[in-house]
Design brief:
single chain; alpha+beta; two-stranded antiparallel sheet
Length: 153
Amino acid sequence: MRLNGSRVAARSFCYVSDLVDGIVRLMNSSSALEGPVNIGNPAEFTMMELAELVIELTASSSKIIKLPRPVDDPQRRRPDIRKAKEQLGWSPKVDLQLGLQRTIGYFAGALAEEAPAGLFVNGRSAPLFALGSMPVPSQTHATPVAAWGPARE
């Protein structure tokens, strides 16, 4: 797994069902709202934490390869959602771990359906993943809406 930038570069991740809910609330709000309204998740995770969590949740044996940080890449991206909370009554509900679990479960199921008959990895029938061959923990196969996955929940 490639990790660009420093170990401390941080990002926030918002599950798409939360984003859609926030956007719908914004569209249905009064026109008295002025200025930008940030819809996102203020919980920050370092890119290293994200990489380690993905490896853990997918039971991957992938190694993290550290690459140089792109010149224009900010160290932090954390939305200020005070206006969304106060004026729209909105805040994100799905945390990073749950969003990743839903997304991994969805793609494991989708890839298993597309896998040709007789495809075996490590002696078991399994899909191939971009991060390498790995067993995926059994998850709820609810179709996620995710910034990390396909539309529908």
